[in-house]
Design brief:
alpha+beta; Glutaredoxin; Glutathione S-transferase Yfyf (Class Pi), Chain A, domain 2; 2 domains; four-stranded mixed sheet; 10 helices; 6 strands
Length: about 300
């Protein structure tokens, strides 16, 4: 069976997405492992994330018999990046991973800006978008909704059920992610302990974990059935210890987390390895300037 692939690099300016995909397909070849990799690279391409331990995903045939081209995923292994790799795996969509090394400023490349105006991962380019034309999507919540509508999976069409999913998706986007992210930042990356900031964000993350714990006391998943709301939250709960939380204090949440992370698609998504990511030193002043010192450009 023909399979999807994962390659590296930041490409695909929005101005000519269709031409990009045609040219990209023509310039690729199979290596002896049966994995497709780019045979040529643009001259101006950041060079940190060159190798990727990858696992192919099955290609899908559309109703008209035409093989669906891989979705391009611009990715770094963070809770927001995990959301989209999980969703693509859950939906069985073929996709190509393009690592964007945020510690080296690759997210500020003009070619990536054309796809993600906020200079943040994740972002996707779907060559088989609405009307059969390519489309780019940025912001993890928007991508989850787009993929849910595209596939009809994990995002119900029934309005009452969809409202429940949207409530918990936006709860994550506005609450769990930002608060847990700040708790992790001030616990692990601040140059010196700031008592007020530590208490503020650790306590708020604790409160939010409690909200999830109560919600999950009488249902298996956040919106009843497994959905993009669960996909959005699992990566942040995975980092509970880094955010100063003991998951054992939240038995319903812990049960939910063990259930979700055991799903085969989630296991596969978490197994994606970006070698450059494990080498990032957040104590390096240059890395800190890129990650934590940005202002308007």
């Amino acid at each position: 069976m023909q399979r999807g692939e994962r390659r590296t690099g930041i490409e695909a300016p929005r101005s000519d997405l269709a031409a990009f995909f045609i040219g990209h397909a023509r310039s690729s070849s199979f290596n002896f492992n049966g994995m497709k990799r780019a045979a040529s690279r643009p001259k101006k391409q950041a060079g940190s994330a060159r190798r990727l331990a990858k696992r192919a995903t099955p290609a899908r045939a559309e109703p008209n018999g035409r093989r669906q081209r891989p979705i391009e995923l611009y990715y770094w292994p963070t809770p927001n990046g995990w959301k989209i790799s999980i969703m693509l795996e859950e939906c069985g969509l073929p996709y190509t991973v393009h690592p964007v090394d945020i510690s080296r400023g690759e997210q500020f490349a003009e070619s990536f800006l054309a796809i993600s105006p906020n200079n943040r991962i994740p972002a996707i380019v779907d060559p088989d978008g609405p009307g059969g034309r390519p489309i780019s999507v940025f912001e993890s919540g928007a991508i989850l909704q787009y993929l849910g509508r595209k596939t009809g999976k994990f995002y119900p069409r029934d309005e009452r059920a969809r409202v429940a999913v949207d409530e918990w998706l936006f709860w994550q986007m506005a609450g769990l992610g930002p608060m847990a992210g700040q708790a992790i930042h001030f616990r692990r990356y601040a140059p010196e302990p700031i008592t007020y900031a530590l208490a503020r964000y650790i306590d708020e993350t604790n409160r939010l974990f409690g909200v999830m714990n109560r919600r999950l006391a009488d249902r298996e998943f956040l919106a009843g059935r497994y959905s993009i709301a669960d996909v959005a939250c699992v990566g942040w709960v995975r980092l509970a210890e880094r955010a100063g939380q003991e998951l054992a204090q939240f038995p319903h949440l812990e049960r939910w987390f063990e259930t979700v992370r055991a799903r085969p698609a989630v296991v596969r998504a978490f197994a994606i390895r970006i070698p450059a990511a494990s080498k990032v030193d957040p104590r390096d002043p240059k890395v800190r300037a890129v990650l934590f010192g940005q202002r308007a450009r």
